[in-house]
Amino acid sequence: MMAHEANFDGLVGPTHNYSGLSAGNIASLTNNHQVSNPKRAALQGLNKMQALANLGLIQGVIAPQMRPDIKMLRRLGFSGSDRRVLQQAAQHAPKLLTSCYSASSMWAANAATVSPSADTQDQRVHFTPANLASHFHRSIEQQTTSRILAAMFNDDNHFYHHQPLPTSEQLGDEGAANHTRFCVQHQDQGIEMFVFGRYGFDHNQPSPTRYPARQTYEASAAIARLHQLDPRHVIMVQQNPLVIDQGVFHNDVIAVGNQQTLLCHQHAFLNQANVYLQLQQKMAGNLTIIEVPNNRVSVNDAIGSYLFNSQLVTLPNGDVSLILPQQCRENSHVWQYIQQLLQAQQGINRVDLFDLNQSMQNGGGPACLRLRVVLTPQEHKAMNPAVLLTDSLFRRLQQWIHLHYRDRLVEDDLVDPALLLASQTALDELTRILKLGSVYDFQRV
Fold this sequence. Notes:
- This protein has helices spanning about 25-30, 40-55, 70-75, 80-90, 95-100, 135-140, 140-150, 215-225, 240-245, 270-280, 300-305, 325-330, 330-345, 355-360, 375-380, 390-405, 415-435; strands at about 5-10, 60, 110-115, 125-130, 160, 180, 190-195, 235-240, 255-260, 260-265, 290, 310-315, 320-325, 350-355, 370-375.
- With about 450 residues, it is an alpha/beta fold.
- The protein has one domain (about 5-65, about 100-445): 5-stranded Propeller (L-arginine/glycine Amidinotransferase, Chain A), CATH 3.75.10.
- The protein has a three-stranded mixed β-sheet, with helices on both faces. A three-stranded mixed β-sheet has the order 3-4-5. A three-stranded mixed β-sheet has the order 6-7-8, with helices on both faces.
- It starts with a strand and ends in a 12-residue tail after the last helix.
């Protein structure tokens, strides 16, 4: 039975701002306190979705979180009217306020880890929402993410939704940003590669010293068990601590893979030669590994351009494209390497460039914005069709963004209760457009 990979991109939320909340994410820290443009950010992401749909790919939409998270601010001791809660938080705990306003759910690669039915024992698609335990502003996403995914993939005969792993230092899980699946055809049983940054319990193992390693071995192993994966078709790989300390906070900042191709930096993994050997053995030699030498593209170049935070997609005509941010063209080392990569014909034969500057300035490129889900025709038919991008939905979402989003936002605006009300109004309408039901707390009172 044929299967296809679908991409589900996170819609940028109405409160997209630059608050520098993400330790280890160089772009996020560098652009702290800059003026953001939520409307432009949302339109840039939506335009990428439409372009991929026009290329013949299955493209869907993931709704953003409701921000600010007033319920969390109340849980943290602020009380009174919503206006009073915002004022108190701004006065006494401004970082808590900016955290509860974060639009970071736009990076849907962190929403969950997904295993297709071809890989799981019960032959259902398995979803485990990420607990995102390493940062407070992301750890508060998991409950709403679970509701949204359940409303999108809403047939228990085809989809299995797990709870997020317990939120703890030892079980930090950052979702699909640290997970890659290899296969010959999408419907074949694949090899699922889980990349972790450190061991949660064994502190004698190598780990970064400057920036946090967000994904633990224990979290990755738990997800593999929960998803009923055959251990013979799983590989556990440790990320190189040295590149984490240079700002490679997720594996998808230093490597990208799909089907029979892995594109990665020379310094992506610990014991990299052994990683290659294991992958080739499990793939029976049906894997093309493209290692980018450090003397051609440095780690700093990779982080600055987000070369590896690309989408590697197979188009209906068989072409394999790298979906890249325009920053790759602006970096001479990276662009020269890309041109030579295309000439080499090693399995990648085209690139498509996109302006995602609003997302990039907060540390997220094309790969961060999407969650990959492999679906059979029956599973495709069984999911909520309202979240799949069509020309009609594209136009409707364009209108929705122009109606509800601001074109300028700074941190001083976060105390404005009108922004909260505007966000509630926008997302209440969005749930009707996408037929999600009451996924937000303010809808469930």
